[in-house]
Amino acid sequence: MKRQLIPPLLCLLLCTLLPVRLALAGWQTEWIDTFDGSSVDWSNWTAQTQANYNAEIQCYTDDDSTVSQNYLVAGGTLTIIARRQPSTFNCATITFGNPMKQWTSGRLNSKDKAEFQYGRLEARIRMLDTGGGSWPAFWMLENRIAEQPIAGDGDNVNWPNPGAGEIDVWEWTSNDPDRYITNFYNNSAGCISGNAEFYDYPNGVVDVQQWNDYAIEWDANEARFYINDTLVRTQNLAACGQYQEPMFVLINVAIGGTLGGAVAPTLTQARMEVDYVAHCTETMSNSATRCNESTPISSGPPGGGGGGGGSTVGGGVPASSIGSSSSGSASTGPGLLLVLAALGILRRCWRGMGPR
User: Fold this and answer.
1) What are phi and psi of 105, to 5 degrees?
2) Quick one: which of 271, 273, 275 has its CA closest to 105?
3) Fewest beta carbons within 10 Å, which of 35, 136, 170, 249?
4) Whole-number mean pLDDT of the chain?
5) pLDDT tens, residue by residue, 61-86
6) Residue environment code for 214-229, b if the CB has 16+ CB neighbours within 10 A, otherwise e
7) Strands 134-142 and 166-171
């Protein structure tokens, strides 16, 4: 076929304008819980009552209603409350390890209900108590991990092997209160694992008691961590053999253990308040930089593989479980098609020739 040259002026125009258009890519909400009800929305969350790790001394419960509740949903927020008990007791829900505990607390995960492959995951969090010994976290696990709930759909992989890797978006300990941790745990060649990086709060522990928006943006090649508008860490994932499948979110307050450390004798409760947890995917239809209640909602159908799609979450936003078939990509709208077409033309410009 005769070569068809692209007019040089068109190439120049595309090279000039396309980066600007790409820079305007924003976020659209696929799933969000704004905790607007009066109890935990169990269509979004599972209380991981069997969790017993890291020599921690709390018993996780599903109590969101009694006077001893470990989850309080009120005023548009969720507060996870760890409570010291009068004496050591047997945690009946624990199925492995030492069941004798001194505290009760809460640990929620979205496994099988809301799972995400790539995009932006964000939560607005503050700590209400900072006495020594608490260990709250906002983090993710790959969805084939052998942890509650067990659906029998291949979720039989032990941490942190492929299918059961971990990413810590925000991990804080009250015994090291002036900074927080981002981290990765995995067992694959080409991945960084166990290499914690710290962000120092400008005003120390005072800052952790204020509302902060913690987020991760990730794709197959890179992960970026944020607090508010500040980029905290960038990690290359291009050679990593994990984090290429759906993950679920966890929020919890642990007490003591290998990282929480010694518990202050005067500490009787540790409270983490969460305003929202949200997942967004990229879109060319807006320039939103955050993933929260104000972010435009995806116009695509709810669901889409991986389980849990189609449920309604706090605020009435459809849940979307992003499975491996969708890869967390933006909806293919006219704007995206235009960009793809332009990229095709640019490729021909760079080669200096049309199709052969």
Assistant:
1) -160, -170
2) 271
3) 170
4) 85
5) 999 999 999 999 999 999 999 999 99
6) bbbbbbeeebebbbee
7) antiparallel
Q: List, in order, residues 6 or more apart from 186 with CB less than 8 Å away.
A: 160, 161, 162, 165, 166, 193, 240, 241, 242, 243
- Domains of the chain by range and CATH? 1-25+332-356 (no CATH), 27-329 (2.60.120.200)
Angle at CA of residue 93, ends 135 and 68, nearest 5°: 65
pLDDT of residue 318: 46
User: Which pLDDT score, from 0 to 100, does residue 13 have?
Assistant: 52
C-alpha–C-alpha distance, residues 209 and 218, integer Å: 27
pTM comes to 0.82
Residue 334's pLDDT band, with cuts at 50, 70 and 90, is very low
Residue 19 phi/psi, 5° resolution?
Answer: -60, -35
State the Cα–Cα distance between residues 102 and 268, nearest whole angstrom: 11
Q: What is the pLDDT of residues 223-280, one digit of tens each?
A: 999 999 999 999 999 999 999 999 999 999 999 999 999 999 999 999 999 999 999 9
299 vs 56, higher pLDDT: 56
- pLDDT of residue 347 exceeding 50, the answer is no
Residues 6+ apart with CB under 8 A from 258: 54, 55
- Return all residues near 213 (Cβ < 8 A) that are at least 6 apart: 122, 123, 124, 226, 227, 228, 290, 292
Q: Using CA atoms, how far apart are residues 167 and 278, in angstroms rounded to an integer?
A: 16
How far apart, in whole angstroms, are the C-alpha atoms of residue 162 and residue 166? 10
Residue 157 identity (one-letter amino acid): V
ω before 149 within 30° of 0 (cis)?
A: yes
Please give the span between the terminal C-alpha atoms of the chain, in angstroms, as a whole number: 5
pLDDT, tens digit (0-9, with 9 covering 90-100), for 170-202: 999 999 999 999 999 999 999 999 999 999 999
- DSSP category for residue 181: E
Q: How remote is the C-alpha of 341 from its chain's centroid? A: 32
